[in-house]
Amino acid sequence: MTDIQRIGVAARYSDLVIHGDKAYLSGYVPESTLDQGASEQIRDILGQIEQSLTEIGSDKSKLLHATIWLADIAFYDEMNAVWDGWVLPGHAPARVCVESRLADLDYKLEIQVIAAL
Amino acid sequence: MTDIQRIGVAARYSDLVIHGDKAYLSGYVPESTLDQGASEQIRDILGQIEQSLTEIGSDKSKLLHATIWLADIAFYDEMNAVWDGWVLPGHAPARVCVESRLADLDYKLEIQVIAAL
Amino acid sequence: MTDIQRIGVAARYSDLVIHGDKAYLSGYVPESTLDQGASEQIRDILGQIEQSLTEIGSDKSKLLHATIWLADIAFYDEMNAVWDGWVLPGHAPARVCVESRLADLDYKLEIQVIAAL
């Protein structure tokens, strides 16, 4: 049996769950940029993801998979402009990007990743 | 090569697939509560998930990740009221919850989880 | 630390990422069938997935999980007619199928899989 380690545990979800040499993150949403545009919100989210990865001794060179939900697919280019600059060259994760309505109307996007330790 | 074990195998999908020390479940949908509300449907689905986990020697303390699709994001609070009470304190999985139209108009939600054995 | 191997690496995403004995593929979309129907597009996508699996020494008997996003849930039956014939009997992956608007209006569906090596 492989140990399970949970970080940022709440009643509803954990921010991330480590099992073996993989970390499963929750869908991360904007925190400090709720009233701002998709560019600001993706920077906000990617910053949070990076911080969480650092806390567990991982980093963005170890991303395995990312799923991006856009509240409006029209944000696609604006999101990618920030995403493309954030991804470490040669270390891009597998990725999915689709449109879905999100839990808060102020969220323009939500991102969930799986990373290696 | 790690063995793959499939449970509830049909032509279209398996209810769950075990690989190594992880189980990947299909998106579970309501079975006995098709004409009922989101509260009843999530209880129905979580019951099915729990039963599947039991069958493979796992349980809800070993959930790694959950994705919840709501047919209408308006079901968010109703779904959470049941979810929050179901999750084992200190063992919440990483989670995503978004809106998507589902395969049957009677489905108010669908849940897919990854669990450790 | 388990090695990470990336195939089809671009600035935005990798076609697939291998970690340990699992491969995480990106969401695959139609390439040569953009102006065609859902049947043609799923054949196109499944062909690409099969080719990618072959390249890494895997195959469709080793699919663990598949997520299918339909641009319109009305494509459900048409998609399944092809899917059911493609899946190797006894080896169906766990599966989710939901509706989401996709990055290109010509995409009728997008499929993402996780496979064992």
Report on this model:
The structure is a homotrimer of 117-residue chains. Chain A is globular. In chain A, helix 2 links the parallel strand 4 (63-70) and strand 5 (94-99). In chain A, 25% of the residues lie in helices and 32% in strands. Chain A has helices spanning 38-55, 76-86, and strands spanning 4-9, 14-19, 22-25, 63-70, 94-99, 109-116. With 117 residues, the first copy, chain A, is of the alpha+beta class. The first copy, chain A, is built from two helices and six strands. In chain A, strands 1-2-3-6-4-5 form a six-stranded mixed β-sheet, covered by helices on one side. The mean pLDDT of chain A is 97. Chain A has one domain (4-116): 60s Ribosomal Protein L30, Chain: A (2-Layer Sandwich). The interface between A and B is medium-sized, with 27 and 29 residues.
Mean pLDDT of chain A: 97
Side-by-side strand order of the widest sheet of chain A: 1-2-3-6-4-5
The largest interface is: A-B, 27 and 29 residues
Q: What structural class results from the helix and strand content of chain A?
A: alpha+beta
* Estimated share of beta-strand residues of chain A: 25-35%
Based on the coordinates given, report the CATH architecture of chain A. Answer: 2-Layer Sandwich
Poorly predicted parts of chain A: none
Largest sheet of chain A: 6 strands, mixed
In CATH, the homologous superfamily of chain A goes by the name RutC-like
The CATH topology of chain A, please? 60s Ribosomal Protein L30, Chain: A
Overall geometric form of chain A = globular
Give the oligomeric state: homotrimer
Approximately how much helix is present in the residues of chain A?
A: 10-25%
Instruction: Kindly give the count of domains of chain A.
Output: 1
